[in-house]
Queue: 3 jobs
Job 1
Amino acid sequence: MKATIDANDILKLIAHRPGIGYADLRELCGCGSDLVSRLCKSLRDAGRVMADKKNVGGQVRTAFYTPQAWLAAQMQAERAAGFPAEKERRPPAGHGHGITDDDMAWMQHYQRRYFARLSRARGLSA
């Protein structure tokens, strides 16, 4: 009996290994590239997975991240490029979630940048 995979299986693999590519997903799932491509595209269209290009051995490859892991990777890359790290802070009193207005502004900035890039890639805007 052949096991089938679905989008949730792909999502779990991407959450477990941020930055995973098509080849690794195909190898771990044990299925063809067509199925993996369709599942990744459906996850990306639904906004549950973000794709980014990375250079591996001189070739540009697609790497998949969950939105949280993608945001963390972008912030880490900016800090490595010389942007100052944010000061250590405690959550404000009365806010159990600990997300400040600055954090929300950064997340919205990266989301706008990602979706603008995504719409340009699809030819939806200039």
Job 2
Amino acid sequence: MQRRFRTMMVRTATLLTSVLAFASPVHAQTVTIINPLCPGSTCTFDVIFDRLTNYALLVLGPIAVIIILWVGFTYMTSGGSPERIKQAHRALLWAIVGIAIVLLAKGIYAIIKTVLGP
């Protein structure tokens, strides 16, 4: 058993050595990849963060309006059910928290950047 294992290890080492010793380099064509976050400009954290927050405002604005409309619909169709009214209040609270976070993101970043320095 041990002899068989040793033979297999020698064969594997020989095979790997021969493959790695005679490997030829590949001269492939280089490709320039354009960064979609900041094409034509240098990518700094400020640029990327600004673009991401602008995108978040663009996407989350309509989503927030839809959520608030859904909350209003839930509240109006609750039929006086305390459970459904509580569910609508919680959804409205979290929708407002989400909107506030998105709106304050740029301000919070500016404050942190000012405190920590450039």
Job 3
Amino acid sequence: MCCGTTADIVRYVFRTGGDGHLNRNAALFSVGVKIEVKKPLKGHTVIVGFPGIGLVGPIAAKHIVDSMGMELIGAAFSESFPTVAAIKNGVSLPPVRIYADGEKKIAVVLSEILFSDKTAKALGETLVETAKNEGAKRILSIAGVLVPTASSRVLWGAGSTKEEVEFLKGYGIQPVEKGITTGISAALLVKGQETGVPVALILGALRTKEDYRTAAEIVKKLDEMLGLDVSYGELTERAKNIEKEVCNIFARSKQRDSPMYG
């Protein structure tokens, strides 16, 4: 177990009851997802980076984790996850990992795996429930959207509430006027609205699927918003190497049901 002993782990498990019917303490899905954390997340901003178009989410999230030297403090598990494990320095890592910097109160949830719609919904909802129970400040989901005609490095955003939209606008992030999102990001936004957990989505415009500068722009914006104190200028150079790491795992986890972005 990567995340500590039973005594120091807080577990969140949301699933249907044994009789197949939903109960008040169960999230609204049938896929069981378990999240374990060994350190508190009270007051933390939780950055979520999962695969989508251009792999912006995991590339930016991994750069933040590496640059800040974040500690692995938790993970998510489910029988519905693809049988794939990331390996670093010879040691296997959970498919969905939670890192944190307690001093800056920043957490990062990172995965290279593409999940089915049903699993993405369950995982997103469980992340929101975990954030709520832990007293996290906000969830920030990061992703990319392909816009070949984009004339500049535009960042768009959406929020679970009007307050979250205003929060994003305060940092120059343009609200999405009309559109849809799917997968993890959609689950986070919907569950955040339902539970009152502040959730914001930041989308970077990609001119091509290999547009590494978008990941750098998102990291730069997160640095402005959260005071990460990370180097983002070198990310465009590191991104190709990071992408290779991400793609190796991503390719093995590809499933038929894939999100548009997020």
